[in-house]
Amino acid sequence: MPLKRDKGNITFPEEYQSREYKIFKEEELVSSLPRTIYEKACRAAARINIHPDAKSEKKLSEAIDFSHLKTTPVGVASLTILAALLVTIPTIVLIAMNLFLSGGVTFGNGMIILVLALPFLYYIYTYPMHLKKRYEMSVGSEIVTMILYVAMFMRNTPNLERAISFTAENITGPLAYELRKLMWDVEVGNYFSIEDALVNYTKKWSQNRNFVQSIEIIISSLTQPDERREQMLGEVVGVILEGNREDAKHFTQSLKTPVMVVHAMGIILPVLGLVMFPLIAVFLGIGSSALFFVYDILLPIVLMFLISNILESRPSTFSRLDIADIPDAPPKGKFRAGKKFLPAWPFGFFVASISLGLGYFIYAFEGPQGVLSPLIMIGGITLGFAVNYLLLTFQLTGLRDKTREIENEFAEALFQIGSQIHTGTPLEVSLEYSIRRTKNLKIKDLFLRALNNIKSMGMTFRQAFFDKSYGAVLFYPSRLVKSVMKTVIESADRGAKTASLTMISVSQYLKGIHATQEQINDELSDPVSSMKFQLFFLSPMISGVVITLTVIIIGILSQLTSKTSALPIGSFIPLLGEIKITPFEFIIVVGIYLVENIFILSFFVNGIENGPDTIGRQNTTAYALIIGYTVFVITLFLTLSIFSPLTLLAVS
Questions:
Q1: Do residues 528 and 396 both lie within one domain?
Q2: Shared-domain flag, residues 321 and 346
Q3: Could you read off the pLDDT of 163-177 as tens digits, one per residue?
Q4: Phi-psi bin for 458: left (phi > 0), alpha (psi -120 to 50), beta?
Q5: Is 482 domain-assigned?
Q6: For 312-330, how does the pLDDT look when each residue is reduced to its tens digit (9 = 90+)?
Q7: Does 7 fall in a domain?
Q8: Rounded to an integer, what distance in angstroms lies between the CA atom of residue 497 and that of residue 423?
């Protein structure tokens, strides 16, 4: 039966389709279905069939295809218009009710609702572009690892198709899926060869010139003699690393102005507004609800939007350490307690509930003028989140740090073994020598276990590392270690000299990556240090000072009112006592803003330092909440104890 072509793709008759191909088709079908609320909403809204203009449709289409979003430009435009109608029509109706009937909202409030809806509508329309940038960061972080694995494999086996297959098996994330997809496209005839598939794939990453250049060098190396090929494969790792260094340097230079904007939006302007709020509240007659809306809803949304846009310009650097293969890692949302895994949130909820209950009990005695009860309530919210995040991350960060330390030591150990084997020393003797040379490193236990397998169990070099029951790599669940050892063992089948050269060259690759990572961390250290100071100390300290000033101002206004009550009615001074916010309400609003600010700045700091990393963000947030709240409380009580008596003395 002849093959059929459907829109440029070859379609095989059912009886000639393999089991693997059928499974792949099922996976593709499942992945083509809408998964997120946004995708489902776009599919539902697409029925009204609103088309964007040609230029916008092209941009949306590129972003949707790049990020594998399961929707269309028509769906995005239709959802935006539908959301606009759902906001505008009810608001107009409510304004009309207020003007001609009863109830509804005033014209001013209605306009505020419509103005506030504009950023959300814009975000709905541009969401595919934002998702594309985040997808570039996620996939781009794996590019260095991909180039490393391809270069390692092709040093011994100049077969690009096998190298891509090896890479797809040993990396994670969206890039692994895309490489597998390329392999399938070659298998079914969508591309003539893997070279054509990779060249076409690089068009998607045309803005990442270093990646495109690296792929071109890899493809060109296939036609070169062995010595020249190895030289070119060494160069390709240097090309991608140099590109990462340049991108990080430019990103750091561009961070100065955004960090100043975040500082102004997060500290300077809010502080000015909070200090002036008591007087503003008197003359405009506004209360705590307006303060809550501006500081606890509107300002955090604006700040989060600014920070998200800044982080979207962060260049992709290195892949995050995958802890999925670590056997001791607790499941998502849980932590290990002995031999059991317990959920973390009940412990955080318990701490928060106790503190909130205690704060409410004290409020019954203090009343709205009290300071202690709102502090305890805010402390309950803060400690509840902190306990939850600490329990979720303290074991994972320990396991991840241990694995990262082993990976950093791996290059040195590999170089020692490779150099020793290159002198003609037998494999067992080389392992023993290298173990003695690396006795202060944790990675030595990997090779010690492999050596014991060879000596006591008579295993081959391959079995000593990859035996299903006793293989040394089973006890070191690092994808990098496993992938490199696979390459080394593949080369060992061609002889000891080939294995030694592979070890030496791969160790040089790994040292180059580690050195580049250190340089990038050094480049980012200045903005990270500045934001950490703001996160841990400056924001909490200023919040404590602002509350002290406001409580004192409210007290002064109340004292002035009581002492000038006998003045003529026309005097404005008695009006100063008619402030519509109490110290309790003010502390609650500022405390909530401080907690939100810590969450947002933790997201910013971790985003600059590590990129999209949930474990790192939660761990940073937990410590920032504890340290920030402690600084906040100490500052508040210290300033109150110093200035409150002086103020009361001056008024009296």
A1: yes
A2: yes
A3: 888 888 877 777 888
A4: left
A5: no
A6: 777 766 556 666 666 667 7
A7: no
A8: 9
